[in-house]
Amino acid sequence: MPLLCLTTFCWLPPCIPLSLFKLLLRYAERILTASSEAVRALEDLNNVEVGAVNLGASQTTGTYLIPRLAASFQQKYPGVTVKLTVGSTRSICTSVSNGEIDVAIVGGEVPPELMDNLQVTTYTEEEFVLILPPRHPLSMKKQIEKERLYSLKFVSLNQNSTSQKFQTQTLKENGLNPKMLHIQMEFNSIEAIKSAVQHGLGAAFVSQSAVQKEVQLGLVHSSSIQDVILTRKLQVVTNRKRYFSRAAQCFTQEILTAADWYGIQQSSEQRFFIEGKR
Q: What is the DSSP string of the chain?
């Protein structure tokens, strides 16, 4: 394994201003990131089958989608170490921008102020469905009239969560008034919501990928809403200005179509061509 050593000697006065310390810290972080990228680049020259890929995901995606993708990836590349970080869309995108995460899949809006550094590619659409307790009177219906939603009791995520904001906005766009829905309880996780629905505390809107197992086992009932479409885009986020390791390239290529992957690859190659001319 190649070894890269950096030794820096810097004289500092006994008491330095906080502003100077923050400035030095910022540049030190850049040096550490650059040295880490250099080590990964040298490793890539020797072997594609080993290495590491740092993945990121928003809450629902990281819990229910990424583990399946990572398992499939490691079957093909058992020598590659996979690390997953789950957080809010903003925090994950910030980590991609900083070079801490190689590839992320998020469901929320990518912060506009980070777009100069990021390459964003649509991955797929995530569908949200209405789930009901298995013995609910409406559980025998495959499709429910949207006006019936006003008569249901709901459990939901906290109103400040990305998923909940998406649901609220999408219901408005489909001619429903979210303020008229009877929210009985709020939770801070999808698992808590699913458990609450199973125990008859109310109905809920959740990602279809999050309830596949529960629906198959008959623990909850899944229904669509007449004339209401609840889908959002899942997006792959990478950093167009940082080194893209072969492990990260392989993972991204596995989950994207050829056309989308070509766009990311061209962006990465263009960046290194421009830097090489400087």
A: -------------SS--HHHHHHHHHHHHHHHHHHHHHHHHHHHHH-SSSEEEEEEE-HHHHHHTHHHHHHHHHHH-TTEEEEEEE--HHHHHHHHHHTS-SEEEESSPPPGGGTTTEEEEEEEEEEEEEEE-TTSTTTT-SEE-GGGGGGSEEEEE-TTSHHHHHHHHHHHHTT--GGGSEEEEEESSHHHHHHHHHTTS-BEEEEGGGSHHHHHTTSSEEEEETT---EEEEEEEEETTS---HHHHHHHHHHS-HHHHHHHHHHHHHHHHHHHH-
